[in-house]
Input
Amino acid sequence: MNWNDEVDVFSANSAKCPNCASNIFFNEKIGRLVCSFCGGIFTPETLEPVGYIEKRDIDEAGEEENNKQEFVCDSCGATLVTDYNTSATFCAFCGSPSLLGRRLTKQFRPDLLIPFKVSKEEAISNYRQWLREHKGVPRAFSESATLEKITGFYIPFWLLDADCTTMVGGTGQIDNGDNTIANFFIDRKIEFHVTKVPFDGCKKISDILMEAIEPFNYDDLVPYNDMYLPGFYAQRYDKSALDMLDIIGIRLDSYAQGLVKHFSASEYSKITTSSVGSYADNFSQLYALLPVWFLNIKYKDQTYSIAVNGQTGEASGSLPISKSQVNVNTVKEVLKWLPLYVGVCAVFAAAFSILLIGKASYLTGFLLSLLMICICGLTVFLPFVYKRAKYTKFNQSVTIDKAPGVEEYIDYSGKINMEKKDIFSHMSIKVEHDQDDLSMFKLKKRNTLLNYVLKKIFNDNSFS
Output
């Protein structure tokens, strides 16, 4: 029986928290019962406590908080915490100047903090260097007047520790080298410990964007002290660790699958995995402020966010491609398939000419045949290139970098246990298939002259 089958009875509202008698609910992502009132986490079978997620900063500010103030944006509702010597003239999230300053209303007491190491000038420089790697971003995203609004934030993060147990299934293949492949069903149970996995506690900032500028170097973590706040702003968390249990569970699942692939790389030529059940015990979390240079840029009725790690200088963002570059890329996509189309038509024309036309008029017949076949073939070629062009045009944007892998957060000082129950499935014949070589022609990179001409044709004065 799958362990998930044993806990369905605990999903009803009748289950009560052993600590506070509130209703507790089963969270399928972490495989545990959770009390949303006190933060207790329990095993479904025995109600044994296996962790606790503390609620923080819920009390009103006291006298010890008199050295701090908060600014509230009338437009988007963002709240910025800073010292009394630091002013705010605009909201970094929506750009509105409608900020109301007031005395701190709630306690502000993170556990830890990483101080800023990257200056504003260095952050802008690192962002521009990252931007140069992504051709075709509109000039609005590199103008000094825009980038001067980049703001230094201490972003709230939950640094999570947990003992993870995951059942991972999937398939594996072993290339025998004799045109045959041995196929296996993968069945693994893996136990490991992760430490200080960061989860962004601010609703107004994209989790994916924050993951893109990881990792932070935790060697620089220091106990929170107000002395680090002047000149910067801090966000109070508005997503508790309890609010993010689903996100936490998904990320821990991905780490388990990554571990299986890592440890199985020497066994299988190809491996695919998926989590079939997970649970986490011994949850603990720290509330930390991590340094980020952040800026929202409005462009053509859309808002785009960029971020620079205030400790390491890592920059990332989700940015648009200018219209001129989109047009250039679309034309290139169409031209890429043109040689293949003409080549196929030429083969058919040559075969037709050899079979039906005498040698004396072969060249003339070949050219006429090629022309006729090309015209007839347009009924197939034009719809195909239209779809390719439409797809290329739709998928034009700068993609955000991926989050770091499990190797950044796994506790190698602890034990990693893997129980292996893989079984043989069947033998299959090896099929050669190269997705990168779909045509009979290996097309070279388009030359600089073609780039230049196309940019001039489609210039919209926003291309950088």
Observations:
- Residues 3-52 form a domain with the N-terminal domain of TfIIb fold (CATH 2.20.25).
